[in-house]
From TrEMBL:
Pfam families: RteC. This is RteC protein.
Amino acid sequence: MKEYCNQLYGELKGRAQQIQQRASGMLKQSGAIYTEVNKVLLELKEYVLEKGFSDEGEEIEFFKQIKPRFEAEQIYYGELYYLSAKVPRTGEGRTDEYRRQLDFVHAYFSRHHFLYTYYRLGETSLDRHLFLRKSGPVPFIPDRPMVNRDARFATLGSYRYAKFMAYEHLQDHLSREIKKILAPGGSAQSSKLKWTAPKVALVELVYALKAANVFNHGKVSISDIAQCLEETFQKDLAQYYRTFQEIRIRKTGRTNFIDGLKEYLEKWMDNTDLNGKGEEG
C-alpha cells in the first residue's frame, strides 16, 4: 500500500507542477490544482476501501502519515484559492488581509494546542485513539462533526494532521507575501554567500536544524529558519514544506545531504596539510 500511495502522491505533485507552468495567476493555478487533488483523493479512497489494511499498524500509518499529505494539499489549495479571490490586488488592504489570515492560522494552532504539540513532537502514545477508525472518542480532544465525513475513510486525528500540515504551509506563504510587500527585494543582496547546491539539500538542512533545536532553545518555527537561510544564502525556498514531503518518501537515503556533510568533514579533518585554522595550506 505504501508504495502505491507514494507513487500516487508523486503523480499528484507532477500534475500540480504542470498546472503551475501552464496556468497564469495564483487564482487559476490553485483552483485547477484543488480540482486535481479531489480526483486523486477519490482514487485513494477507492483503493483503500477495496484493499483494506493488513493490521492496525498499517492503518495507523495510513491515517497519520499518508492520507494527511494528500488532504493537506486539498486544504492548502482551497485556502489559497479563497485568498487569491478575496485579497485586494494592491494597497494596504492586501497586507491587512494577509495578516488577518495569518492571525486565523495562529489561532487555529492555539485552539488545538495539545494535538498540535503532539503532532510537532512526533508523539505516538495516543495513535491508537487518533488514527484507528473504530477507536472511541478522546475526552479532551473534541471531535466536531464534519460535513460529508465518511467514517470509513477518516479518523479523529487524520483531518487535524492534514490541517496542521496545510496551515503550516499557508503560514509560510502568508509570511512571504507580507515580507515582499514590506521589504521588496529583501536583504539578501548584502550577503556574500550564495547557495549553489540543490534546493532540496538546503531544505534538508533546515529541518535538521529545527529537529536539533539549535536556535533559540528550540523556540523557533521551521518557517523562521527557512526564511533566515533563504536570505543568508540567496536561495528561494518557496514551498519548502512540499520539498520536505518528497524527502520523507525517498526510497533510498532520506538524509543524503546531511550524511554527505559528515563524510566530507571527516575527510577534511584527515587531511594532514591543514594549517592551524583548519584551512588548506
